[in-house]
Jasmonate O-methyltransferase (Hevea brasiliensis), 376 residues
Amino acid sequence: MHQNPPMLRTSPINMDVEKLFHMTGGIGEHSYAKNSSLQKKASHMVKHITIEALQEVYLALAPKSFGIADLGCSSGPNTLSIIKDILEAVEAVSCKIMSPAPEFRVYLNDLPTNDFNSVFKSLPDFYKELKKERSGGSPSLFIAGYPGSFYGRIFPNNCLHFVYSSFSLHWLSQIPPGLYDEQGRSINKGNIYISESSPPLVSQAYFKQFQDDFSLFLRSRSQEVTTGGCMVLILLGRIGPDHVDRGNSFFWELLSRSLAILVSQGQIEKEKLDSYEVNFYTASKDEIEAEIRREGSFELVRMEMFETESQLEKVSRNYGAEVAMTVRAIQESMISHHFGDQILDSLFEIYASMVNEEIVKEDINPIQFALVLKKL
């Protein structure tokens, strides 16, 4: 039986992202459900954009059965809170125009390893709460789970009127193959993302993977979203052409440094660090706009950039611990698969300390984009 050489067997290029990558499930101390407040805060900042786009599409299309998808829904309180916001916004418009509210078909999508069970377990209480708020009347609401990668088809043709995706599209479908030479060795040694010491081929490989993934995402949704339907996409990004800044990429730089400390302490092998990369890319405004134009199925109606919070807000609390717990909830599955879960506690203690040290020196400004796209 043929066996891969050792380097290829441990190389993350062979990691099946669809099978391995997921937010930490359940409701434990390190779960995404308990450590997604930063995402909730950021989503709340752009809530007005989501609601405006949703109400506009409902008024324009007036569907009797309203098809809605949340792509990259994850698990935890944020999943159901957006459904509640959507229901209330559409019901408010229906009341205003004196028309009965539609039935709601809500499709929750994420990778198959997502903790869908915890979402489904919370549905009975969610339905009860909705009924109570409406004095015994209950909205006509049908929620279903659709596991699978959104980089490809998920739903039948023309079944969706509104697509929502928050903090998902900066995750790539795979580790970019261009990060490895012919022998399967990383060309980005000592780094887990684009860094100042990365050769130019590294940012090119990440950018190409983003182009392939985002255009496939748009092409797939173009068949599932009805004409006139709309998408609200919230994703992390970067301000200009430089990939290295004190924004989202800097958090990966600090994680690289934290892993390097564990290498120096003998807790992990240098080869392990050299062969680890993240399936992540922060696109610029120009890169996103160019892909939307190139694919051609959607019109970019609106695009806004936000910074999550001020430096003063970050320094005034234990921001490092908050960021560390958030990153751990997101990356734990990949890191423990590659390095082993025995390093997790010490890694994220070092990481939290580094973030706190850096935020006092100079602000770290992770930015996000909110996009509204209309199906042509």
